[in-house]
Amino acid sequence: NKPYVFITRKLPDEAIKPLTTLAEVKMWPYEDVPVTREVLLSEAKKADALFTMLSDRIDREVMEAGESLKVIANLAVGFDNIDVSFATERGIAICNTPDVLTDTTADLTFALLLATARRVVEAAEFVKAGEWKSWSPFLLAGHDVHHKTIGIVGMGKIGQAVAKRATGFEMNILYHNRSRNEEAERKLGATYCTFAELLEKSDFVVCLTPLTNETRWLFNREAFQMMKRSAIFINAARGAVVDEEALYDALINGEIAGAGLDVFEKEPIDRNHPLLALNNVVALPHIGSASVETRVKMMELCCRNIVAVLKGEAPETLVNQQWLEKTRRVL
Ligand code: GLV
Ligand code: GLV
After folding, report:
1. Portion of the chain with pLDDT greater than 70, in percent
2. Which ligand is nearest to the CA of 141?
3. How do the residues of the chain divide into helix, strand and coil, expressed in percent and rounded to 5?
């Protein structure tokens, strides 16, 4: 009997080929519509492996339904959509897609920073709307990026790749992280700061921290009030790291100068959300790792992880290391 794999989104057949030789594979039939809760639960019941999206909530209920579930491969580096400690308890391996998306996500983060600072989106819309009547000295004048201070909150792999890009713009680099990263300090000339110090000194505050109980609403009213009035806030991590109401008030009250957001507390964000009405907000639909090349690599990595676990081997990018210790003891 072949193992059964359920994929919660329609993916190209080519990208999932490694799975189809080993397992019976079923996909949710739509590319642009997330799987319904009912289908997710009924498929989980039969599945040996789930291949999931960051928009799927993989909680206790899903894992309890999955009586023969051995592995969940999430098409993302983040895994805040999954109850990892419960998975570990249940003996389910959780895999993510780090590394392959690092440079792609750093590129988008920097593009968002540049777009927000130099008002690229506003300016492009202005031209297409036929509003360009004359050249004028301060027409759509923004803020410089080069030689300014960037403060990176979350100096993991993506944070370091953003810092590397910042060196090309001759920026002064500050960072805050749970633990100091001496390699980043040495290689990139980054300076470790407390969170408060970083907020006070940075021209660009860039959020790249995972969403955890410790980072939920890390960027609250107090945080925005500590930033420079000229500061630009960039979030390419997770929406819930920010109190969006506090961010909106900070933008409206001139406590900060602008925001570039790739992620939101609720995705998709409602088109009537007050943040979307602000000219100094650049909003993107969670496309940090969205290059064709990288998305294919992420899919391939998910497949390899699933194949490994189904064959009784260790997956390449395991989130819950305890799963491996537990499994090794059994083997
Ligand atoms: C995207 O947000 C990811 O976590 O990969
Ligand atoms: C701008 O185009 C300039 O020539 O300064």
Report:
1. 99
2. 2
3. 40, 15, 45
Distance 257 CA to ligand 2 centre (A): 25
**Atom 4 of ligand 1 has which residue's CA nearest to it?**
78
Q: Return the CATH class of domain 102-283.
A: alpha beta
Q: What is the mean pLDDT of the chain?
A: 97
| pLDDT 10s digits, 168-183 | 999 999 999 999 999 9
CA of 202 to the centre of ligand 1 (A): 25
Distance in angstroms (rounded) separating the CA atoms of residues 272 and 211: 25
- Residue 331 reports pLDDT greater than 60: no
Rounded-to-integer distance, Cα 206 and Cα 320, Å: 27
Q: Which residues line ligand 1 (CB under 6 A)?
A: 54, 76-78, 101, 288-289
Catalytic residue set: 238, 267, 286
- pLDDT interval class at 35 (50, 70, 90): very high
Are 136 and 155 in contact by the 8 Å Cβ rule? The answer is no
Closest CA to 113 of 139, 90, 144: 144
Q: How far is the CA of 147 from the centre of ligand 2 (A)?
A: 21
ipTM over 0.85: no
Determine the residue of 56, 81, 95, 105 to mutate for testing ligand 1's pocket, defined as the one with the most ligand atoms within 8 A of the Cβ atom: 105
CATH topology agreement for domains 4-100+292-330 and 102-283:
yes
Q: Which fold has domain 4-100+292-330?
A: Rossmann fold (3.40.50)
User: Domain locations in the chain?
Assistant: 4-100+292-330, 102-283
pLDDT digits (tens, 9 = 90+) for 188-245: 999 999 999 999 999 999 999 999 999 999 999 999 999 999 999 999 999 999 999 9
Nearest atom in ligand 1 to the alpha carbon of residue 237 is 2
For residues 10 and 172, give the distance between their C-alpha atoms in angstroms, rounded to a whole number: 43
The pLDDT confidence band at residue 330, using thresholds 50, 70 and 90, is low
How many angstroms does the Cα of residue 139 sit away from the middle of ligand 2? Answer: 12
Phi, psi angles (nearest 5°) of residue 33? -120, 130
Report d(CA 164, CA 188) in Å as an integer.
6
